[in-house]
User: What shape does this take?
Amino acid sequence: MDMVIGTADSHDPSDRHRDASVVPSSPPRPHDNHEAGHVVSVHRAFIYAALAPGFGEWYAGARTRGVVVFIVFLATSVWGCWLLAVTALALMDLALGKPLQNPLPLAGLGVSFFLAIALWFWGMAGAVQAAVRTRRKSGDPPQIHPAWGVAMSWLCPGAGQLSLGRQPMGFILLGLYVLIFPTLAPALAGLRGVLDNAVTSAGQLFQRPDLIVQLARDISVHIELSFPSLAQSMVKTAAIALYCATLGPLPGALGVRLDTEGARWSASPVARGGGIAILGWLCPGAPQLLQGRESLGWSLLGTYLLIQSTAGGLLVQEIIPAHEASRIASLASIVVVASIVESLVRIVRNRALERKKAGNLPGDESRLL
Assistant: This one.
């Protein structure tokens, strides 16, 4: 959400020393160090970076870094596409019975994929960091909005923390999320056992369609409960939960700013309830954290992650089959529903208490609520 801040009249620099105790009625004229009067939006910078790495940093004022990120990303993408084309041609020759003249460039293909992913996420995080820094230098207030922060944390874990100015935690979450991608290859290799069984019973698959459905379900469960999938889900939920926990009762200017921003997105009860429901579906316990009830919120999130990790661990160790692991993992949906329902009941109850309190006040005072 972009906010246009009022501008202040220009003064002689010597006037600042005449009375240091006087607080200006409006902040200084915003700028991004390149174009006077232009207010940098953290959210717009994030969107530009999501569309093309480097564009968000260019928009936020870090133009040299943006150009470097874009060029490196473009070169990595071209290299990866070339390796992908070489691999596809080699596989076609192999299918036609021709021998492979050179080994497949699978290692290079994996490296190019990882670098492209890392640059894409870095572009989004770097754009948010640059936008926050530019707004701080320009004298603009922090740009805080729960819905935007949750969306950024879900798409790019750590971006929400960076938007609050908490750079160490933001880059730690981002680094953990990106470093999980190289584990995709071992996880996919673990599906060989499922595929070998499918090839062995290929004749039965054509005769019994229910086996095809069961095979598809087993593959889906193995992918959903694999280490990369569970680990990235944990990092995403942790990023959202930490962002919501940070938006609790805060002292100072940040708390005042949050109250101002929060009043805009939560004015409508229907919109607020819908937002809480989506938040609880993305991260169980996050609605409670956003409402300032940390004990309940962290307990719900911990229970959800424990159920998911238990099901995944038992499946990887081949202690239980895929359908039983899926049954255990489905218990986590109870935690999701409980988090959503409890937070919505809390909103309705608080709404009723506010109306009751307003009804007990005189007419002029009740209109203020």
